[in-house]
């Protein structure tokens, strides 16, 4: 087989193969991989946020980023955080505001919104959306 024909044959086989995924990952793994690649925060910023939340609420808390910071094509925007704790929270508005200010200062003035979820707080649609669509820091 001449070199050009061989190259053409290889090329068409590669094109046919490229339209199908070689490996289909489990959905949860694929979603986690997507979360890791689409977050518009640096590693240092993520670590700082996690540390501030842990300092304020303890190690039983989780933090997810949601909103525009998960969109690689977007620019700027505030930082929307979903913070979930496993114990009841007294004065949730004050806690959310305090956490927001601490993180905002650490992010050099970037606006930070903190959505808090705890067993004693009413669940709203925004909580469900943030829990489902957010990416763990």
UniProtKB/TrEMBL annotation:
This is Nucleotidyltransferase domain-containing protein. It comes from the Bacteria. InterPro entries: NT_sf.
